[in-house]
Amino acid sequence: MMRSMFAAISGLKNHQTMMDVVGNNIANVNTTGFKQSRTTFQDILSQTLRGASGPQGGRGGVNAEQVGLGVLISGIDTIQSQGTLQSTGKSTDMAIQGDGYFVMSDGRQKFFTRDGAFDLALDGTLASASSGLHLLGWQANPLTGVIDTTVPAGNIAVPVGAGMIGKPSAALDIAGNLNSNTAPGAASATPPGAPVTLSSTVYDSLGNAIPISLTYTKTATADTWSVAATTTATGVTVALAPAANVVFTPQGRVASGGTPTLTLTMATTGATSPQNVVMDMTQMTQLAASPSDVTSSTDGSSAGSLTSFTVGQAGDITGLYSNGFKQPLGQIALASFSNPSGLSKAGGNLFSASANSGTANIGMPDSSGRGQIATGFLEGSNVDLAQQFTNMIMAERGFQANSKVITTSDEILQDLVNLKR
């Protein structure tokens, strides 16, 4: 009789634990990045009243007689399924689509989370808005923009407002069409020609913008145009070497002379002098059509300051500067685990590695099974309310049934006591 009471008591205790898990899941239905838990049960060691015996003497075998001694919780598992992504529109909010965890650190210990609610800290680093833990990744070289992901991940700084030095132009790309029906000769010739003038800009080593005028004039030689370069910048002279003559094929493609060097000589600006800029005119055409706009682009830029940044799906952080230049700032790291369900909850939407989760495999997003990053979104809780309410009913009925077993056992014991009156 006492066995039934003790078994029922274990049922009460463990169904109460199940209700605790359900209550915690429901309480966190709106917690960012929360992962619901699940309770599973197992029976306790059974008491054997009679052992099993095999067939003998022409009789069949006899099964064992065992009485169970109650129930135990076999596990409280964390369900690491994807939560719903919720749009926030905030550039520092991030969500992971797929597997993986953001890597956070307090300078001593690493934590892992699916909560991507980040802010820029006072020192410009990306940190959790609630805990202040730093988001880990790799910083780009401020001069070259190169990111070395082979070194250990560290804090990522996004220095909004910080300046960048100007980048001297080393290349000038030119594209567009020159009308093959244009009369040869300069504008002053008889009959007059029709030079095509392109206004462009290159930058010196100090970030100064130097206006350049390129004049294309068709020569008397078939399919050949001369190119002259001038500038209005004070103290700056320009020259083309070799003397530029662009020769086109009968099909209107550049045959030769498409890559002259523009040499800038700075007399008074203090910038590096001379400065060579390689021109690429190989994409120009000479067709029997009205001249299209002749356009140019250079790899140089003036000095500027960081105004904003973007985060790509692969976790790459790109800075946008006031001079229109873009430069890599850093790379966010994600961690993956052999057994994500083995992670231990550390509070504050954080997980820590355990002996059964495996070590963290830290690397770039969108690689090696790690998910992509969605900017301007947060991952909601993966709690299924319908399932939790069903579990609540099951826990309630289980508790109720076990309490009934205790009541019934008590009544039987009372009858035994009353046998002696």
Structural description of this entry:
The chain has 3 domains: 2-51 and 63-80 and 382-417, no CATH class; 85-164 and 305-379, no CATH class; 171-298, Tick-borne Encephalitis virus Glycoprotein, domain 1, CATH 2.60.98.20. The chain has helices spanning 2-27, 385-417, and strands at residues 37-43, 47-50, 65-67, 71-78, 85-87, 94-97, 101-105, 110-113, 118-120, 126-128, 134-139, 154-155, 163-164, 171-179, 196-203, 209-218, 224-230, 236-241, 245-248, 254-256, 261-266, 275-287, 295-298, 304-311, 316-321, 326-332, 334-336, 344-347, 350-352, 361-363, 372-375, 377-379. Strand 21 and strand 22 (275-287) form a beta hairpin. The strands form 9 sheets. Strands 7, 8, 11, 12, 13, 24, 25, 26, 27 and 30 form a 10-stranded antiparallel beta sheet that branches. Strands 18-21-22-14-23 form a 5-stranded mixed beta sheet, with no helix packed on it. The protein has a 5-stranded antiparallel beta sheet with strand order 15-16-17-19-20, with no helix packed on it. Helix 1 packs antiparallel against helix 2. The protein has 421 residues and is mainly beta.
Structurally, how many domains make up the residues?
A: 3
Overall average pLDDT:
89
Structural class designation: mainly beta
Uncertain residue segments: none
What does the largest sheet look like? 10 strands, antiparallel
Strand segment tally: 32
The rounded distance between the terminal residues' Cα atoms is: 21 Å
The gyration radius over C-alpha positions equals 38 Å
Oligomer: single chain
Assign a percent range to the helix content: 10-25%
Into which percentage range does the β-strand content fall? 35-45%
Enumerate how many helices there are, as a single number: 2
> How would you describe the shape?
elongated
